[in-house]
Amino acid sequence: MNPPTTTTAEPGRSPLAGRMGGHLQGAAAEHLGLVLVLALLVGMFGALSENFLSALTFTTLANQIPALTVVAVGMTLVLVIGGIDLSVGSVLALSGGILGVALTSWGLPLWLGALLALGVGLLAGIVNGWVTVAWAVPSFIVTLGMLEIARGSAYLVTASQSLYVGEPVQPLGAPTALGLSPTWFLAILLVAAGQVTLSRTIFGRYMIAIGTNEQAVRLSGIDPRPVKMIVFALVGVLAGLGGVFSVAYLETADPNAGIGIELAAIAAVVIGGTSLMGGRGSVVNSFLGVLIISVLQVGLAQIGASEPVKRVVTGAVIVLAVILDSYRHRFAPRGEVWRRLRKTPG
Amino acid sequence: MARAGDPAALLRIRGLGKSYAAPVLVDVELDLVGGEVHALVGANGAGKSTLARLICGIDQADTGEMELEGAAYAPRGKREAERLGVHLIPQELNLIATLSVAENLFLPRLPSRFGMLDRPRLEAAARAALATVGLDGLDPWTVVGGLGVGHQQLVEIAKALAHPCRMLILDEPTAALTSPEIETLFGEIDRLRRAGVALVYVSHRMEEIQRIADRTTVLRDGRVVHTGPTAELPTARALQLMVGREVARAMSRERAAPGAVALTVEGLSRGELVDNVSFTVRRGEILGVAGLVGSGRTELLRAVFGADAPDAGRVLVGDPPRRVKIEQPSDAVRAGIGMVPEDRKEQGLLLQEPVRVNATLARLSAMTHRGGWLDLEAERGVAEQSRDAMAVRCSSVEQPVRELSGGNQQKVLIGRWLLRDVDVLLFDEPTRGIDVEAKEMVYRVLGELAAAGKALVVVSSELEELLAICDRIAVMSAGKMAATLERDECTHERIMTAAFSNYLSGPDAVLHGASA
Ligand SMILES: Nc1ncnc2c1ncn2[C@@H]1O[C@H](COP(=O)(O)OP(=O)(O)OP(=O)(O)O)[C@@H](O)[C@H]1O
Ligand SMILES: [Mg+2]
Over 70: is that where the pLDDT of B511 sits? Predict the structure, then answer.
């Protein structure tokens, strides 16, 4: 055995430790802050507006978030490996456009149209990943290019028109059990799948390791390139799925859909504590970030805030959340504050 | 001479204590006198670097006080300590990889004119600073990221020497240096000592301490267990104080007749530092690679391992030799070759991740079962075994690696490759920063690997180490393989002669500055 050392094992200090050790305990601690913020917001809007705390508000909100949710899942994954994908909004619009055209002009069945839309997303993702990996171009630049390419293509596909789709997408978008649409259940499923991939699979471990120190990963005999490629491809597929969800929700394929959704997704992900520098992230927390942003939006609308005010408040909340998080993580590596917060004195 | 309570002390340390998760320093008392080299020794994790950080204001003590020339001294940051003339050469290299050597040397206070960087002045100052550590030949505008660890270490030293100081702490400055660079450094240390600077010298190399330290303090588990003149503290006694019991320094291993050829390298070239290099290693054999800092030892290993793609040459494995195409480290691992890199912080470890994650990284793919799922319990078990096998000192395998002492980080890195079954292992400075006892353990581990039929290539700056464990020693000089010596022909002189052989200007140019 090694020499006697300290015994204060502390599950949950590092992101990976948190998901290991006392799994539930660590995870709960990690989510607690966000859940608290969310509860606070709900309580506040409930107090300010008598209509807010109703089933209707919540089903409306739930049915409106699936597109942002799946995009945020993808964004979490790509940020974890230290990359970024700015093209998700455009890819979403392109995929949605393809789905719209497939259903209205080509008369394809929904499943085939959706598959096509996902295929387009996959393609965009593969191109993003391939250029990023093969030429070692920063993904910021590559996906900025793809943002333009995919948006332009979306206009081309839809002839710059909003296409009303209507009935053919209702199997996806129309409310079912509890007033929730199938897209909502799918989105939740993907949040779970994303989280499990990240924390319980070898692939996820490689992702986190690459985001932490890609050199070290490479010199451990693991080729980081395929991992990165796959992640970019996944993000593309998820953006494509976001396109399908958005068409399902609006019953319309709009070439202007998803403008700025990449920023909303990044905001949600960052509120959830994922690092823009890579190596640290939680899909569940990103989902909580999505909920916080969405509740804020809906709540502010209900209390009659104007669009400009909504934006000012949302922006302030994002910055505030990140400052709070930076406090946690500025001290967490050294363990000072974090440990003090957790340890009972003595 | 200084005793506890010496009125002549420049820095007096009284009752200093520091705890992280557990106490790291307890009631440390120390007097540091100007014009003296004070050695600080102790096992990995004893608290040497922590004490250095407290003195230099990088961290703050929980208890106790310090006095600098009679005035209360409690620096709240590195900058404040430096303003008072207290400088540190840190154990972990701290240079900014994307900036030039010149900029790194003078970073917080770059010379400027009208708000613009004064490039000529900076260059002149940088050249002067580099000359003090014998790096006259280095272009000050070289980007630091492209330098090897040895050169980076020299730049760190030059950086500290470039500022006037009253006190200089050197935390394992020679861990990546070979004897000529060390001579140069010792020359500088001597100069500072004569100028009345108080020097603190941390090292695991006891020979160095015997040579240059006036006084030695031994730390064990965060406590001072001995302070006194070095002359009155023989090495064996110091080691005993460090670990609390007798230490056997065997430094040798049983050798079996080497087996079949495991690795053949033919005409390998890469850039300027690997020039048409050929060698073979057999199963059960340890091939040492000696050479000066910057002679291409690290670059050679990296080219074999595919970390940098070679420009020319072939790598063959097995017997009969089978050519393998290695463009990436992953190809090398598939061909049965592993490498422990030199720079643990940049190239080896995931600092923010726990020991567990770092230990199992190379092994994960081998642990794949049930289709890519991580078996966290199994992983933890494997990591704990690795920790015990390497005697890593950590609170648990869930402790982030960044919180470990330098030597313990190194052990984690070595342990990673022991978990992965490969036929050929390349070690680049495997004992960098680890204590005497742990070195013995690493030598034992290397011996066991060889006995188990692995072929090992070991790069080391410590010649004694190579002489003790290797079957043959290859000597690199300016990118070429200058000699390959059989065990019975290996002598200090022959190796150093070969190491200098390809430097046209001869040893004097490389050693330049030793007498400055
Ligand atoms: N930030 C930190 N958080 C928790 N523990 C720490 C931290 N920094 C250091 N330690 C612990 O303090 C102890 C002493 O570390 P230190 O780096 O001072 O050792 P050292 O004597 O320099 O060892 P080495 O010879 O390996 O460099 C170690 O057990 C280490 O794990
Ligand atoms: Mg140290």
Answer: no
Tell me the pLDDT band of B323, cut-offs 50, 70 and 90.
very high
Q: Among the ranges A52-56, A70-74, A331-335, B229-233, which has the highest mean pLDDT value? A: A70-74
- B119 burial (CB, 10 Å; 0-12 / 13-18 / 19+) is middle
Rounded CA-CA distance A155/A269 in Å is: 28
| Ligand 1 center to B402 CA (angstroms) | 9
B262-509 folds as Rossmann fold (3.40.50)
pLDDT of amino acid A190: 97
Q: Where does residue A341 rank: exposed (0-12), middle (13-18), buried (19+ CB within 10 A)?
A: exposed
Regarding the beta carbon of A3 and ligand 1, being less than 6 Å apart is answered no
Q: Into which CATH architecture does domain A67-343 fall?
A: Orthogonal Bundle (1.10)
Domain ranges of chain A: 67-343
**Binary contact (A209, B388; C-beta < 8 A):** no
Phi-psi region of B313 (alpha: psi -120 to 50; beta: other; left: phi over 0): left
For residue A332, the model assigns a pLDDT of 45
What is the pairing mode between strands B112-113 and B116-117? antiparallel
Domain boundaries, chain B: 262-509
Q: Is the pTM of this model over 0.95?
A: no
Q: Which of A83-97, B79-93, B288-302, B499-513 has the lowest mean pLDDT?
A: B499-513
**Residue bearing the bigger pLDDT, B516 or B314:** B314
**C-alpha span between A25 and A28 (Å, rounded):** 5
Q: How many CA atoms lie within 13 A of B162 on its CB side?
A: 25
The rounded Å distance from CA A302 to ligand 1 centre is 55
Q: pLDDT grade, residue B149 (50/70/90)?
A: confident
Query: Using an 8 Å Cβ cutoff, are B86 and B80 in contact?
Result: no
In this prediction, residue A344 carries a pLDDT of 33
Q: How far is CA A287 from CA A44, A58, A70, A284, in A?
A: 20, 15, 9, 5
pLDDT tens for each residue of B151-180: 888 898 888 888 888 999 999 998 888 888
- The 10 Å Cβ neighbour count of residue A251 is 18
Q: Do B186 and B158 contact (CB within 8 A), yes or no?
A: no
10 Å Cβ neighbour count for B174?
22
Lowest-confidence pick of A162-176, B101-115, B211-225, B417-431? B101-115
The CA distance from A6 to the nearest CA of chain B, in Å, is 5
Q: Which chain B residue shows the shortest CA-CA distance from A214?
A: B347
Separation between Cα atoms, residue B12 and residue A345, nearest integer Å: 32
CA distance A299 to A340: 36
B284 CB less than 6 Å from ligand 1? no
Minimal Cα–Cα distance from A90 to chain B, Å? 32
Q: What is the pLDDT of residue B62?
A: 93
Q: B470: phi > 0 → left, psi -120 to 50 → alpha, else beta; which? A: beta
Task: Tell me whether strands B261-270 and B274-282 are parallel, antiparallel or unpaired.
Answer: antiparallel
Query: Which residues 199-218 on chain A approach chain B with CB closer than 8 angstroms?
Result: 200-206, 208-209, 212-213, 215-218
Mean pLDDT of chain B: 88
Angstrom distances, CA of residue B131 to CA of A9, B140, B142, B175, B422 = 48, 11, 15, 20, 43
How far apart CA A220 and CA A337 sit, in angstroms, is 33
